[in-house]
Write a structure and sequence with these properties.
Length: about 230
Amino acid sequence: MIDCKNLVKIYKNGDIETVALKGIDFKIEKGEFIAIIGPSGSGKSTLMHILGALDTPTSGQYFLDGKNISQFSEDELSDLRRDKIGFVFQSFNLLPRTKVLRNVMLPLVYTNSSIKEREDRARAALKYAGMEEDKFNNPSNQLSGGQMQRVAIARALINNPAIILADEPTGNLDTKTSHIVMQTFRKLNENGHTIIIITHEKEIAEMTDRIISIRDGMIESDVKISNNL
């Protein structure tokens, strides 16, 4: 599904160059549940932006479903993000005074669907993500951290993406809530979604099936694990 070949990313600031990725090679098969782990400054966030079609590599190639995403135009990248990838962020990125249901409906604004269809899809996604139905009409700023993350997961699911890319999804959560969120990702994976978690937490990474460790812009290890989350 994903094939990264010799990915290099260099950031330039005047005459100063910072090499964030130094030739990354790996493949991800459809239906995998993966953690990309590394310390701050390791390059994992840069890699996440490339995998999520939010950025392009300086050199190297990124293939998604056999297509060379590295050569896509901005419009093509935008369509890819809309149709193929669901994003979940550490900071949730919800509109704080907007009701839960409307937060989840937002990605459907520019589709041809009716308001009723959008609401039905949003309700189904929220239930699937484990959100309590009596919270659907609450403003998102009245929710707990775990509830907000479930809303964010539901919003990521609304277009039924093949890939869910989660950037530090448990970073603002306590241990118990983190485990609940990871169980939600596990359920999504068991139902066919490819899940990629970006994290610096070893305990969270060990709840997936494969850990790609990055340090100083290079892959340090790539290990498949077994667990019973």
